[in-house]
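Example record used in the benchmark description.
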Amino acid sequence: MKQTISMTQRHRDSGEILLRYDGEAEVEEQGKRTHIRLRCEEPACRIELYAYGDAMVLHHHSIQRTKLSFREGRTTLAHVENELGALTLRLRTDRYERTPTHIHVDYAIMDGADGSDTFEFRIEMRGGRK
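Model output (C-alpha cells):
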C-alpha cells in the first residue's frame, strides 16, 4: 500500500542533512515487521527498510550499496560496497523507537571503543494509506 512518508538522516553533531525524502513509499505490514520501499530521483537511489519491534535493517542502493543494521544498546555491522571495494563498519545503536507512525534511530559509527560520528535516522509516516 502506498503511504506518504518523510525520511531524514542527519549528522547529530553538525546537524547536516545527509538524506532527505518526502513523498510516497510502498509500506507493508507483515506481522511484527514493517517493510518500506521507496525510490529517490535526486539523487537517484532505492531504499528498502525492514523495521521490527526491536531492530531495523536498511538497504540503500545508489552509486554504492549500503546495508545498515540497528538494534538498541547493541553493536552491529554495516556493509558498504562501491567501485573501489567493500568496507565493513561497526555501528552502536543508542536509541531505536518504532510506533505505527514513526521510526527513530540514533546511532554512532564506532572507532575503537568510542563513537567517531553520531547520526539520527527518522521516518514519519503521515497521511492516509493509498
